[in-house]
Amino acid sequence: MNESAAVRPRNPRGQGERLREELLRATERLLEEVGSEDALSLRAVARAAGVAAPSIYRHFSDKTELVWATLEVSYERLAAAMAEAAAKADDDPVARLRAQLRAYCRYAVAHPATYRLLYETRQTPVGPERLAGHPAGLLVRSWQQALTACEDAGWQVRGSRSEAPYVLWSSVHGRVMLWQVMPSPKDATRLDRFVDEMLRLLLER
Known about the structure:
Elements: H1 16-34, H2 42-49, H3 63-88, H4 93-110, H5 112-120, H6 128-131, H7 137-152, E1 156-157, H8 164-181, H9 189-202, E2 203-204
Antiparallel strand pairs: 1-2
Helix pairs in contact: 1-2, 1-3, 3-4, 4-5, 4-7, 4-8, 4-9, 7-8, 8-9
Protein name: TetR/AcrR family transcriptional regulator
Keywords: DNA-binding, Transcription, Transcription regulation
GO molecular function, one term: transcription cis-regulatory region binding
């Protein structure tokens, strides 16, 4: 939409959530183009959504909050897919963790554009207190809880326990990225085998 595009009519009273969703969709489209929070402008978001720039502040206090809310939608979908897979797994904590990790890989394969948005959006650094509220915390907490369940069942986590969720996260992310870009046949069962091997290396009786 160009600079001279008409501003959309104001939503009727009670439709603020609709405006919020339109702002999130506009932000997502723009992030796919610019790839960076720093390169994103609130003016451009407002223009893409067809509203005046001050309207954004009715829903988001600043650009970082808007970007995080946009990413949160995708993180929530990914976390929900992981939780659903774990719920369907055998009543064994390692099996549930394995199901989570495999679901993570399958989600990335099935939704490549959304997945890239999560990891190719360069975000502005924030302080530790605010960082604790980042939407990626959904994944970290899920793996923390899954590892705790494994420990309660008698398994030991090799290495630093505090870093173990990040070991899982960086490992599956790195393997997915290699799977996506390399010219090898796209057999997703290779990702499943990687998850199995990673758990054998991370957990011990």
